[in-house]
Design goal:
mainly beta, two-stranded antiparallel sheet, 10% helix, single chain
């Protein structure tokens, strides 16, 4: 992801109505536990990849679509695009290639490379970077840690994310925490600088930390996740953000 893509991932504002939440709960109650997916949330990888020959389409509220394909054993190609932050004229597109270097017993080591572009109020920005995820996967749960580094802007951006889950039977409970050190770009805080994506992290109320707690469910061919995220923004009170992501296999 680019720096703005990071804002997209950590700042997604979704407001699912109670009927959606009740529908998810009913689906989870009828279904079986969801096998550990590749991500707890779109910004929180577990170290897994899509199996070869399979393609999954994912939709996340408000308007964010991604597709992931297993192109070879241990190798995944993922593309994403959308405008998930309703109050902002922010649009982003990303392509990522992720490969599982180690799959030995419970140990998973996955590396990836990303390239992304974003548009904000007519201004454009591009970023590229890499990702390393190390995880321990067991039959009843997992823990994982991920480090990402993005280049191409005024200053590199580093992101740390930790995830964990436990199988509860009908659903899988999952949690994620991410933190982003505030970059020192020296960008001015003038209002017109807010349209410069290179300065977005320092001139806009960009989130510095994010927490997520929810469940992953499986009903028929549909899988998904729903829960509540908490975004901690500089100089602003914590913002609770419900989220819902639905995944459908195009090639099972």
């Amino acid at each position: 992801m680019c720096a703005s893509g990071l804002l997209v991932a950590f700042g997604v504002v979704v407001r699912p109505v109670p009927a959606i939440i009740l529908g998810v709960a009913a689906l989870a109650a009828r279904g079986r536990a969801e096998p550990l997916p590749t991500h707890v949330t779109p910004w929180a990888p577990t170290g897994g990849v899509v199996e070869p020959g399979r393609v999954r389409l994912e939709y996340g509220l408000v308007a964010h679509v991604s597709a992931a394909a297993g192109v070879a054993p241990g190798l995944e190609l993922r593309v994403a695009a959308g405008a998930p932050i309703a109050p902002l004229q922010l649009f982003a597109a990303e392509v990522a290639l992720r490969g599982q270097l180690v799959r030995a017993g419970p140990l998973r080591v996955t590396v990836g490379a990303q390239a992304a572009a974003a548009w904000l109020d007519g201004a454009t920005g591009r970023r590229h970077g890499g990702e390393l995820t190390v995880g321990l996967h067991g039959p009843r749960g997992h823990v994982a840690w991920s480090r990402r580094r993005y280049l191409g802007g005024a200053a590199p951006v580093e992101v740390d994310v930790a995830t964990a889950s436990i199988d509860l039977g009908p659903v899988r409970a999952a949690a994620a925490v991410g933190w982003v050190p505030a970059p020192s770009t020296g960008c001015p805080r003038a209002p017109r600088a807010r349209g410069d994506l290179r300065c977005l992290a320092t001139t806009a109320p960009a989130p510095a930390h994010a927490l997520a707690l929810g469940v992953q469910f499986h009903g028929g061919r549909v899988t998904g996740s729903a829960g509540l995220a908490l975004v901690l923004r500089r100089e602003l009170p914590p913002v609770p953000l419900p989220y819902l992501v639905v995944s459908v296999p195009l090639r099972p």
